[in-house]
Specification:
elongated; 25 helices; alpha+beta; serine-type D-Ala-D-Ala carboxypeptidase activity
Length: 685
């Protein structure tokens, strides 16, 4: 009997130690630096308002100095009364457990807090199922390794450090990992404020969170376990007998909290921000800084303890929500959405659509797409689909907003704003194999320049202009400005083999998202400097340092910093802006708009210099407006995301114009008016 009891202790200095020494030494070094998974927090732009969290294990690492002594004493009383006397392994406890097991055939563990921490840390740092199994399997070899690592760990870490790690790693039930989460979930308070009764309740959970769950309707088991811990605290001198007796007479009073998780948990007050949160997830999954692949990056988001501050501007966001009726949630299949981007940074300042961000589609009607099955739900009023961009949806045909790309390519290639063409009502293209597009109105027929052609949206002028500069050049420029082709047809037409013949590109037959279009036009507002779209203004690691990534040149840059590059010359961008003032009813610095325009109400609504472009598709299946000032660029659309053949109609084509105009007006209210920089004489022509 005695030999059996002594075996684990002998193994530590005998054959067991020799067989495992190398592996144990390596893992002990890992344990010294390994930290448990921690919740990532997403904040509003004030850096204080928590919008939601991402976690696999809800946990916030807390320093021992921020924990009440009550919880430290309670966990010692509950799990390891000789914690401050032993050196990682308690010989008395081991001997007692093995004698008891030999007599009863049971499995008393004799695990110290240090040994338990070793097991939790090995489990949490495991990267393969095999490592998880090795960390938790009930075998003598695992126990011996655990003891050896506990002994080694206590030579290099203080009792306080081990206690801190333990209390941040332990599982308390109800998805509460670590004492911060347990304090919040069960009592809606921080660990610093735990009373002896509350601390004893939580400490009692570690042994068996489900068996001693105080949130059960019957608290008998939880109360019994709590009282046991209080008695042990009294026996160890942490509580007086009278205090323990008084504490035991109290009922368990819970104040349960359910922490938000993922984008669907964004508070109702900020419901529309759920779409920006969803974009954040998609953006994050594409950032190499957070892992080698999408799965690894999302795992890092849920376990890395990041502090993420969104780039949304509350004032602009509120204006955007109001302009599309986001808070009313439409009962129409037509989605009206808007995205606002900041020129010079690419930061997304607003994302809003007339939908409720929700996973609950139960009350949504049947899809408007006749090819969808009878059980397929529509995207309204509730949806989490990335209707505004940043996800895997192709977007919507953007119509004449694409005329910006051949015009900008032409200007950057040396052509001038005064480039003139006598545009007919219908134009038969020899370059595009006899394709013969026409204008929307006979009033567009006649001599046009870039100013008047853009202001009136003259199709035949822009097909001719695209011939001169090359459709492939316009396509490549659009790509440099952030557009991506997500349908098989678009990818084929944009390919090097086909792009030269893609004449219809200038008429916007390709799908695009409002996020892409706002960001592309923002580059023009920024004098041709394109900045990747980014949904954050700051990302901090768990230690408070900025999250960084390595550039191909080996430099480390902050992930949240703008990533910009010059795509076209500043003069070309300024010239394009001068022409783009014509559609809005604004006055260009240099040329003539030709007497009328497609959105001449915009300048009056915005009340400051503004440029932009309207866009409609065949039969007005979708309608767009992209507008910008020197400070903000906004893209709005209206379309049926479920069925692109469900035409919105001419009567609703003004809706995106109104949305952008009012968003720019209200979002910029109270800010100084800035002027566009005029183009040079050379590019005016």
């Amino acid at each position: 009997m005695i030999a059996a009891a002594a075996y684990p202790l002998v193994a530590l200095t005998g054959l067991g130690a020799k067989a495992t020494a190398h592996a144990v030494d390596q893992k002990t070094r890992v344990l010294k630096t390994a930290l448990p998974a921690e919740t990532s927090y997403v904040y509003g732009p004030d850096g204080k308002t928590v919008l939601t969290m991402f976690y696999e294990e809800y946990r916030q690492y807390t320093k021992l100095s921020d924990m009440s002594p009550n919880i430290q004493q309670a966990i010692v009383a509950a799990e390891d009364s000789r914690f401050y006397q032993h050196h990682g392994v308690d010989p008395k406890g081991v001997a007692r457990a093995f004698v008891s097991n030999a007599r009863s055939g049971g499995s008393q563990g004799a695990s110290t807090l240090t040994m338990q921490y070793v097991r939790m840390a090995l489990r949490d740092s495991a990267t393969t199922p095999k490592e998880v199994q090795e960390a938790t399997q009930q075998t003598s070899i695992r126990k011996v390794k655990e003891m050896r690592m506990a002994l080694d760990l206590e030579k290099e870490m203080s009792k306080e450090q081990i206690m801190e790690r333990y209390l941040n790693s332990a599982y308390f039930g109800h998805r509460a990992y670590g004492i911060y989460a347990a304090s919040e979930i069960f009592f809606s308070k921080t660990p610093k404020d735990l009373t002896p009764v509350e601390a004893a309740t939580l400490a009692g959970l570690v042994k068996s969170p489900s068996e001693y769950d105080p949130a059960d309707s019957d608290q008998k088991e939880a109360t019994g376990r709590r009282n046991y811990v209080l008695d042990r605290m009294s026996q160890l001198g942490y509580l007086s007998p009278d205090s323990a007796a008084a504490a035991k007479s109290e009922p368990i009073r819970l104040k349960l909290t359910t922490p938000p998780h993922d984008c669907a948990a964004v508070a109702e007050k900020y419901n529309s921000w759920g779409f920006a949160c969803d974009y954040l997830k998609n953006w994050w999954s594409a950032q190499p800084a957070f892992g080698a692949n999408r799965l690894e990056r999302m795992d890092n988001l849920r376990r890395g303890g990041y502090r993420i501050v969104l780039s949304l501007d509350p004032k602009v966001q509120e204006a955007a929500e109001k302009s599309v009726g986001a808070k009313e949630a439409t009962g129409s299949p037509f989605a009206n959405g808007i995205v606002v981007s900041e020129p010079g940074t690419g930061r997304v300042k607003a994302m809003a659509v007339n939908r409720t961000y929700s996973l609950d589609l139960a009350d949504n009607p049947q899809s408007s797409n006749p090819e969808a099955g009878p059980k397929v739900k529509a995207n309204y009023p509730n949806t989490v689909a990335p209707l505004l961009g940043g996800g895997d949806l192709a977007g919507y045909q953007a119509g004449s907003t694409f005329k910006m790309f051949p015009m900008l390519a032409a200007l950057d290639s040396g052509m001038t704003l005064s480039t003139s063409f006598n545009a007919p009502y219908r134009y038969k293209s020899a370059v595009y194999d006899g394709w013969a597009p026409s204008n929307a109105s006979g009033a567009m027929t006649g001599q046009q320049t870039m100013w008047s052609g853009f202001g009136k949206s003259v199709n035949t002028y822009f097909v001719w202009l695209e011939e001169k500069v090359g459709a492939d050049r316009a396509v490549r420029l659009a790509e440099q400005l952030g557009l991506r082709w997500r349908t098989d047809v678009d990818r084929e037409q944009a390919s090097p083999a086909k792009a030269k013949k893609w004449g219809a590109f200038t008429l916007g037959v390709s799908d695009a998202t409002p996020l892409e279009m706002a960001n592309a036009y923002a580059a023009i507002a920024a004098d041709g400097r394109y900045c990747e779209a980014i949904p954050v203004q700051a990302i901090m690691n768990r230690d408070g340092t900025p999250a960084t990534y390595a550039t191909p040149g080996g430099l480390h840059r902050e992930v949240a910093k703008p990533r910009c590059r010059q795509v076209v010359s500043a003069d070309a961008a300024r010239a394009a802006t001068d022409a783009a003032r014509c559609p809005t009813g604004d006055t260009p610095a240099r040329g003539s708009c030709g007497g009328w325009s497609t959105a001449d109400s915009v300048r009056g609504t915005v009340g400051r210099p503004v440029a932009g472009k309207t866009g409609t598709t065949d039969s007005t299946r979708s309608a767009w407006f992209v507008g910008y000032t020197p400070e903000l660029a906004a893209a709005s659309f209206i379309s049926d995301p479920d069925n692109p053949f469900n035409a919105v109609g001419d009567g609703q084509s003004q809706i995106p114009i109104k949305a952008v105009s009012e968003t720019l007006r209200d979002g910029l209210k109270g800010t100084p008016t800035r002027q566009f920089t005029p183009p040079s004489d050379a590019i005016v022509g």
